[in-house]
Amino acid sequence: MQPTKRTLTFLRRAGLLGVVLALMLFAAGCTMTMRVQPRVDPYEPAAFFPDGRSALLPVEDTVPYGEARTDDALYTGQVDGQYVETFPFEITQADLERGQERYNIYCAPCHGYTGDGDGMIVQRGFRQPPSFNQDRLREAEPGYFYYAITNGFGSMPSYANRIPVRDRWLIIAYIKALQLSQHAPVSELPQEDVAKLEATQ
């Protein structure tokens, strides 16, 4: 049996009324109670703690989870106030490749791809950093470079918040490889490279 026109009209009106009631119930639940609730702004005084602060300082010597820095050489580049002369872990070929990638991203814009201090930033008129290929920096310990990357040096800012600890060491390993490539004695070159040099002379 087909529903009559009157029945269909009633059903439509009932459905519409149901939708309106549902929307009203939904709107009634959307109050500002969750958004506007008691809170304390940073550094705002409060009576909750005896000292009148709204938050307590961390307990002395608190260490964030996963940030226990027990290896001075790894995390500071120094031991007993002296720059470390060796890397705190073994450097592999893959590490050098990662170091090159990170160097090209973070260091080459100023220091240049060969470490001569002629990066694009310098070509645009900014202050030139020292060349990694000068004797002073070729003889500098890995810990010295780690300290500079972590804390900044001269006009160079700290990269501690941009480059993770391990990547800093990999960049330094690549810098040392760059320095060696610019000053390697002929006696240490592979024979095919020696032949190429002789052919150019």
Which sequence of SSEs, written as H and E, runs from N to C? HHEEHHHHHHH
Major sheet attributes: 2 strands, antiparallel
The gross shape turns out to be elongated
Which architecture of the domain at 92-186 would the CATH scheme give at its second level?
Orthogonal Bundle
The CATH homologous superfamily of the domain at 92-186: Cytochrome c-like domain
Using the coordinates shown, work out and report the CATH topology of the domain at 92-186: Cytochrome Bc1 Complex, Chain D, domain 2
Q: How many strands in all?
A: 2
Structural class: mainly alpha
What Rg is obtained from the alpha carbons, in whole angstroms? Answer: 32 Å
Mean pLDDT: 87
Beta-strand portion reads under 5%
Task: Walk me through the structure.
The longest helix has 25 residues, at 5-29. With 201 residues, this protein is an all-alpha fold. The mean pLDDT is 87. It has a two-stranded antiparallel ribbon with strand order 1-2. It has nine helices and two strands, in the order H-H-E-E-H-H-H-H-H-H-H. It has helices at residues 5-29, 72-76, 93-106, 108-111, 120-123, 135-138, 142-151, 165-183, 191-200, and strands at residues 78-79, 82-83. The chain has a domain at 92-186: Cytochrome c-like domain (Cytochrome Bc1 Complex, Chain D, domain 2, Orthogonal Bundle), CATH 1.10.760.
